Amino acid sequence: MASLASIRSSDNLSTSTGGLGPPANVPSSPVTLSAEDGRQIEKWCEPLILCSAAAKGDLTKVRALIESKGYDPNEGDYDGRTPIHLASEEGHVEVVKYLVSRGANINCEDRWGTCPLRGAISFNRNDVAAYLKELGATMQFGDKKLSLASGELAVREEEKVEEIRRFFLGLDLESSSGTSIRVKAIEKALQQKGLSRKKNKLLDEQLKSLEVASGAEKPEGDKARVSLFAFKDLMAGPQSLLTRSLNDDLAIPHWKSFCKEVEAIFEGCRDVNGGHNADYIPELAEADPEAWGLAIVTVDGQILTLGDADKEFSIQSCGKPLQYSICAEEIGTAKIHQYVGQEPSGVAFNAFTLNAHKMPHNPFINSGAIMTSSLFNPQMNMSKRFKHLTQKISELAGGLKIGFSQSVYLSEKSVAHRNFALSHFMKAEGGFPPDVDILEAVDFYFQLCSCEVDCMSLASIASTYANNGKNPLSNKKVLQSSTVKHTLQLMYSCGMYDFSGEWACTIGLPAKSGVSGSIFMVIPNVLGLALLSPRLDSHGNSTRGVEFCARFVAKFNWNLFDILYNNNNK
After folding, report:
1. Looking at domain 2-150, does it have CATH number 3.40.50.10190?
2. Backbone phi, psi, residue 505, to 5°
3. Topology match between the domains 2-150 and 255-564
4. pLDDT per residue over 529-542, tens digit each?
5. Which of 265, 497, 506, 540 counts the highest number of beta carbons within 10 A?
6. Distance between the two ends of the chain, CA-based, in angstroms?
7. CA–CA separation, 532 vs 459, rounded Å?
8. What is the value of pTM for the model shown?
9. How far is it, in rounded angstroms, from Cα 22 to Cα 71?
10. Which residues contact 528 (CB under 8 A, 6 or more apart)?
11. Hey, where are the domains in the chain?
12. More reliable by pLDDT, 226 or 111
């Protein structure tokens, strides 16, 4: 009879090297087994015993196990790591040479795709690496095999591997084992570039993949670690958000200096105190006139928030482009523009005026937004329409919360005589589609204006437009490219009420303002921003917000024509 304890003792099986040893479900106390059971367990342990000897550089034992007991030099452990993997990484060149003489495969790969040559280079085992190169060893690097037998290519790739290794270890100087670092250290490095794992779904998915590639079967929280081999595969592989962030190849590469400059502009605008709160809606008149918040979300999901960025406010006219986009996705822009024009009105947002075709001039003035409301799923009852609207706006915001202010809704409705009059004016001119309940259309418009956001959620919406319809935080495609184009074109020409022409000629970016003091602005392929400052100018735009946008665009040369002619030299 044989016992598992005697097998362990006789073969001196170690669990300290490379994670070797039996799995956790093998009992640690002596268990009496049949001779056949003992032989089967010993057979199972063979690769572990041989790998342990190779890792220790015990050439005598390696010889005995292969020549006397017939152990297979190419059989690996449960991670696919063979004796030559362990001997190469530990720098035991004589063991490596012996294993090669016994038929060991010099190009074998473990489950992470790591080969002996890569292991030798990673751990600076230069004599082993040189020997394997002489034999014509190859290693997988990214999506191609590289022959490293000799020549300039070999030197370049070795330097690249070493550069990645040093960068990897530098991410976690406090807790690096030489072969792994904490995931938490990578997250900290990403935070310094404006990226948050908790808020960025794509980044979270890529970090989880990295953890799995490192051997973690489930998240381990703060204890989670990333292996050097998995990290190398990541950095040498196809471009991803994670690799671009670690390579400083994001929408805003120099994040810290960018944030510092933006904060300086933000604080410099704090003394801009012209204008006053919207007083024709009682609830808005009571808003804190000193509120001052800003949020920026780039197309890569980098986030900056300043001041009162988390202060909720009613979306007001900033909701008009969102309703237009959602409606366009469902019925098409052609259908919308049978009833709404697409040109600046040149007059106040609540003026009694229609274009030559007896239509509202554009969807972003009150009459145009009421008309768009009448086209928004009129077959649904009011509660379902509103629920559908807020769900879609939340998708534009990357899943962030969209609230509703009952007090603002009731306040708007109590003084809505002009908006009701506008709807009757359009009805009298034959502007509405057949069978439209104009009172419901106006009421739905009030509900839209009473949706609540903060600067962060509105900036996330803006980033969806900047990112061609895909929200950078949720990584979800929300709008078609054609819808984004139509919406941004209208925002560029009609988004800032009767100040739109001057805005286009000076600031030169798509934007929309609301009488709650909000503005959201889009820099295509770069970022979206949102700000809040309730004091309004004579056009109904945030006085402080307009000034900030002017200084911001001037600082970074982000006028569309600066971008077009590559004048971003500041």
Report:
1. no
2. -85, -20
3. no
4. 999 999 999 999 99
5. 497
6. 81
7. 11
8. 0.73
9. 17
10. 296, 297, 459, 460, 461, 462, 463, 464, 465, 466, 520, 521, 522
11. 2-150, 167-246, 255-564
12. 226
